[in-house]
């Protein structure tokens, strides 16, 4: 059995980031930019008013001007100012030729087609956005490696970009195994359990912006599982199996993986929950055999699967490791790293009740996993420990 750290290193060393693709900007949110992006034109594309008011050519001691035109936002008609003239103008509209300044309408009085200026702070260029002030044609708009946040998407759209080169999100297949599984909503017959792993995993993947998710079900039979795994591998970068990875007579994940040509990279990690975790690889495709207990599935997801998915898309890991003090003493046997479902607040981490790996009630309340190292058994109240902060 390998340690948690060894397992993480093996995964990390076996991930090849996915090749960049071109995406329509509207589909690119949450992706990492794979190429520098450049502006095609000046933005603003013309000298533009930042206020509703009057456009003018600035001079010291201006007192009055005659209104000779109007510029509304979106106007396609060009206009020019002569000496002593002003144009009514609105926010976003182009300034008439010859104008360099806009006075807010609150700072003038209007009478008989004229304005009287009452703005002591009026300066040349006030309330006028210069052509190319945001960005000039040919300038670098955003560098490779940037995350396309909503603001980044808006910025690129605002400079007229429609397509971007990004690192794609992985395509993920989930295979839930087990004869005992029943769909939530149907009657639970004797010996059955409601199938929840595909729900928790799908929800977690969708939280990451992963949309290509295929869910398969497989009975505990080697031939069936082998065929389902083959089908899943046909269109996935990552396959997540749940259940069937331990030592029982009906646990076929290891054998089915071998039959599908997947090379085993490890099986079994010194941890609780999730001891029988399996990881394998077929060319660039990655396969996780997650131990079936619902809490083991999620504990392994946050520890191993999520960082791997992030790496595939060249994104930062969002499971943050930090230090916290325990709010209570805790005992565990030596030999395995324990990941306790916990609640973190103001630097303190509280282990929750119901730590058993078949239960999700505590995980449903948790915002962190408290990591208790393999070789330690006694933890004091206020002792500093490492926690993994879970993404919401
Ligand atoms: N003799 C041993 N028995 C077990 C060991 C061991 O070392 N020696 N390890 C235990 C540990 S730890 C775990 S974890 C489980 C993992 O076993 P499997 O991955 O083979 O999982 P299953 O046996 O198929 O299922 C375990 C448990 O989870 C329930 N389950 C499975 N899939 C789902 C699902 N999609 N939704 C909800 N619940 C699910 C299943 O009904 C079982 O109760 O092995 C121990 N045994
Ligand atoms: O390790 Mo298993 O995941 O405890 O139940």
Features:
binds ligand LQZAQKY5, 6 helices, six-stranded mixed beta sheet, Molybdopterin biosynthesis moeA protein, domain 3, 17% helix, 392 residues, elongated, alpha+beta, 4 domains, single chain, Molybdenum Cofactor Biosythetic Enzyme, Chain A, binds molybdate ion
Describe the protein in words.
The chain has a 6-stranded mixed β-sheet with strand order 8-5-7-6-10-9, with no helix packed on it. Strands 17-14-18-22-21-19 form a 6-stranded mixed β-sheet, with helices on both faces. The protein has a 5-stranded mixed barrel with strand order 23-26-25-27-29. The longest helix has 19 residues, at 294-312. A hairpin with a 2-residue loop joins strand 25 and strand 26 (348-351). It contains 6 helices and 29 strands. It is 17% helix and 31% strand. The protein is elongated, with a radius of gyration of 31 Å. With 392 residues, the protein is an alpha+beta fold. It has helices spanning 4-13, 150-158, 197-207, 222-233, 253-259, 294-312, and strands at 21-24, 32-33, 37-38, 48-49, 53-56, 64-71, 85-89, 101-104, 108-111, 114-117, 128-129, 140-142, 163-167, 172-177, 181-182, 193-194, 213-218, 238-242, 263-267, 271-272, 278-282, 285-290, 320-326, 330-331, 337-345, 348-351, 368-372, 378-379, 384-389. Helix 3 packs parallel to helix 6 and helix 4 crosses helix 5. The protein has 4 domains: 4-19 and 169-312, Molybdenum Cofactor Biosythetic Enzyme, Chain A (3-Layer(aba) Sandwich); 21-42 and 149-167, no CATH class; 48-129, Molybdopterin biosynthesis moeA protein, domain 3 (Beta Complex); 320-389, Beta-clip (Beta Barrel), CATH 2.40.340.10. Ligand LQZAQKY5 binds at residues 176, 178, 180-181, 193, 195-197, 242-248, 251, 273, 275-276, 291-294, 296, 357-358. One of its GO terms (cellular component) is cytosol. Pathway: Cofactor biosynthesis; molybdopterin biosynthesis.
């Amino acid at each position: 059995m390998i340690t948690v750290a060894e397992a993480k290193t093996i995964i990390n060393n076996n991930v090849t980031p996915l090749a960049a693709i071109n995406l329509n900007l509207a589909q690119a949110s949450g992706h990492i930019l794979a190429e520098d992006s450049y502006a095609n034109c000046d933005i603003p594309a013309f000298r533009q008013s930042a206020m509703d008011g009057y456009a003018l050519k600035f001079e010291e001691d201006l007192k009055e001007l005659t209104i000779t035109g109007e510029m509304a936002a979106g106007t396609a008609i060009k206009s020019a100012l002569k000496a002593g003239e002003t144009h009514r103008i609105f926010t976003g509209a182009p300034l008439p030729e010859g104008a360099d300044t806009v006075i807010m309408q609150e700072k003038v009085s209007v009478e008989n087609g004229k304005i009287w200026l009452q703005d002591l702070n009026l300066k040349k260029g006030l309330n006028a956005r210069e052509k190319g002030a945001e960005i000039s044609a040919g300038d670098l708009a955003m560098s490779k490696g940037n995350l396309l946040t909503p603001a980044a998407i808006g910025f690129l759209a605002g400079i007229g970009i429609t397509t971007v080169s990004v690192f794609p999100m992985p395509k993920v297949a989930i295979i839930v195994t087990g004869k005992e599984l029943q769909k939530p909503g149907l009657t639970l017959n004797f010996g059955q359990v409601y199938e929840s792993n595909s729900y928790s995993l799908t929800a977690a993947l969708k939280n990451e912006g992963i949309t290509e998710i295929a869910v398969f079900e497989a009975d505990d039979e080697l031939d069936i599982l082998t065929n389902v795994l083959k089908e899943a591998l046909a269109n996935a970068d990552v396959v997540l199996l749940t259940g069937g990875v331990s030592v029982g007579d009906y646990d076929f994940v290891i054998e089915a993986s071998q039959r599908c040509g997947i090379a085993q990279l490890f099986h079994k990690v010194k941890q609780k929950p999730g001891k029988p975790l399996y990881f394998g690889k077929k060319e660039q495709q990655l396969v996780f055999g997650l131990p079936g207990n619902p809490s083991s599935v999620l504990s392994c997801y946050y520890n191993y699967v999520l960082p791997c998915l992030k790496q595939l898309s060249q994104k930062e890991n969002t499971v943050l490791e930090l230090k916290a003090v325990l709010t209570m003493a805790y005992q565990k046997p030596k030999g395995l790293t324990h990941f306790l479902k916990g609640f973190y607040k103001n630097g303190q981490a509280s282990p929750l009740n119901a730590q058993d790996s078949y239960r999700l009630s505590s995980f449903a309340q948790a915002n962190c996993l408290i990591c208790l190292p393999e070789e330690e058994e006694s933890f004091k109240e206020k002792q500093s420990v490492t926690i993994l902060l879970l993404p919401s």
